[in-house]
């Protein structure tokens, strides 16, 4: 099936793939890759090279219009061929989703101040929504949000605690979600701010995102009314504007990661011998790679199906939840088989397969664990079945 900007997306994708394979992949063992993501110096160097190659923020065109979701899928899969590709090309989370949201909701003044530095790759951002589970916050249920926003003259005063805030350390732009009398609200903030204190960086299984994942305390953060994003009480609606395509963007990027793992495992199986023949000629190995090829194609089709729904103007929440579950689980199986095919080499750091496995494993949790999406889908199935006249 063709789509309106297919030719343009293919041309951009070719340039991106060439850059990621020939330039970015060479940085995958750089000592500036730290426990909580690539260092600011490495991010800057990679983005300077992406800018010079003409692949900075490639899914957003010079006139600030976006490729279609199908076009974006083609390009973001190419950036994902290295865990550093989205960092270099400025297509990674949370910036990609934040740019999409600001492009849809922000005022002209807010776009000039907060969006343009993100699109240019000069700044990074953070999305402050997730809270600790239990008494201190909402966990995976944003309707239970405890972070508050209280009106004080022409300002809002925000207090609360957030966790798993990707990229907060080193970000320049923040989008903070809090609950006011009118309902959930979103606010734009300049970072760093003395009122937003990073309590600690969480030690997580993944390590590809700049700034890592932080737990933060927000204490008496004063935000001018002019920096509210959209209208009071519309925060959950704006979150869905962001989250549906952002879930799909994760699928796009991690599809590239799993594709790269499959390439490395295939090369290994086609060049190593055991018991007198190439590994791939052993059914136990060859069948795993065959299953990977099947699941990569199925994941690609699911991504394209969801992208088409979003491009058609549909809400996309159901489609993106289904895609997130299906693709994250499939790509994890792909990465797991790649480790198994490579045996001891698969768990060593002689190749990046072990890192790709860790990154994809985290994907099953981030942007909503598989079980939360299944629960949400089950509720919708029940609701549809119980409608009068069913």
From TrEMBL:
What the entry lists under Pfam families is as follows: Acyl-CoA_dh_1, Acyl-CoA_dh_M
CDD domains (alphabetical): ACAD
Q: Which terms does the record give in the GO molecular function aspect?
A: acyl-CoA dehydrogenase activity; flavin adenine dinucleotide binding
Which residue numbers delimit the Acyl-CoA oxidase/dehydrogenase middle domain? 127-204
Known SUPFAM superfamilies for this protein? Acyl-CoA dehydrogenase C-terminal domain-like (SSF47203), Acyl-CoA dehydrogenase NM domain-like (SSF56645)
Keyword vocabulary terms for this entry: FAD, Flavoprotein, Oxidoreductase
Top-level taxon of origin: Bacteria
Q: GO terms for biological process? A: fatty acid beta-oxidation using acyl-CoA dehydrogenase
Q: Which Gene3D superfamilies match?
A: Acyl-CoA dehydrogenase/oxidase, N-terminal domain, Butyryl-CoA Dehydrogenase, subunit A, domain 2, Butyryl-CoA Dehydrogenase, subunit A, domain 3
Q: Where is the Acyl-CoA dehydrogenase/oxidase C-terminal domain?
A: 233-380
InterPro entries listed in its UniProt record: Acyl-CoA_dehydrogenase, Acyl-CoA_Oxase/DH_mid-dom, Acyl-CoA_Oxase/DH_mid-dom_sf, AcylCo_DH-like_C, AcylCo_DH/oxidase_C, AcylCoA_DH/ox_N_sf, AcylCoA_DH/oxidase_NM_dom_sf
Signal peptide location: none
- Cofactor(s) in the UniProt record: FAD
| Cellular component GO terms, alphabetical | cytoplasm
What does the similarity note say? Answer: Belongs to the acyl-CoA dehydrogenase family.
Q: What is this protein called?
A: Acyl-CoA dehydrogenase family protein
């Amino acid at each position: 099936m063709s789509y309106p900007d297919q030719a343009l997306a293919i041309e951009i994708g070719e340039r991106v793939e060439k850059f990621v394979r020939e330039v970015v992949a060479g940085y995958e063992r750089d000592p500036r890759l730290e426990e909580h993501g690539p260092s600011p110096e490495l991010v800057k160097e990679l983005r300077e090279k992406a800018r010079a190659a003409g692949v900075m923020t490639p899914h957003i065109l010079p006139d600030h219009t976006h490729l279609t979701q199908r076009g974006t899928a083609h390009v973001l899969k190419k950036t994902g061929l290295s865990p550093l590709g989205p960092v270099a090309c400025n297509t990674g989370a949370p910036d990609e989703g934040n740019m999409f949201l600001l492009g849809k909701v922000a005022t002209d003044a807010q776009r000039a101040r907060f969006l343009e530095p993100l699109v240019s790759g000069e700044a990074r951002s953070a999305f402050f929504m997730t809270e600790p589970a239990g008494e201190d916050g909402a966990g995976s249920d944003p309707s239970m949000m405890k972070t508050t926003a209280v009106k004080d003259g022409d300002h809002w005063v925000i207090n609360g605690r957030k966790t798993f805030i990707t990229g907060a350390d080193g970000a320049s732009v923040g989008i903070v979600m809090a609950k006011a009398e009118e309902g959930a609200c979103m606010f734009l903030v300049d970072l760093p701010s003395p009122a937003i204190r990073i309590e600690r960086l969480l030690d997580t299984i993944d390590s590809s995102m700049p700034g890592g994942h932080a737990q933060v305390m927000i204490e008496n953060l004063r935000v001018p009314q002019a920096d509210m994003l959209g209208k009071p009480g519309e925060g959950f609606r704006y979150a869905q504007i962001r989250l549906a395509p952002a879930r799909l963007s994760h699928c796009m990027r991690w599809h590239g990661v799993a594709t790269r793992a499959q390439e490395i495992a295939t090369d290994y199986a086609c060049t190593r011998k055991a018991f007198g023949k190439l590994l791939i000629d052993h059914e136990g190995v060859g069948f795993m790679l065959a299953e990977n090829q099947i699941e990569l194609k199925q994941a690609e089709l699911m991504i394209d199906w969801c992208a088409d729904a979003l491009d058609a103007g549909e809400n996309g929440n159901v489609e993106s939840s289904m895609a997130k579950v299906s693709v994250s689980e499939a790509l994890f199986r792909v990465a797991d088989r790649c480790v198994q095919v490579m045996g001891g080499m698969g768990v060593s750091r002689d190749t990046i397969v072990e890192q790709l496995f860790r990154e994809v494993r985290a994907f099953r949790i981030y942007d909503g664990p598989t079980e939360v999406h299944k629960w949400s889908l089950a509720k919708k199935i029940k609701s549809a079945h119980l409608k009068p006249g069913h």
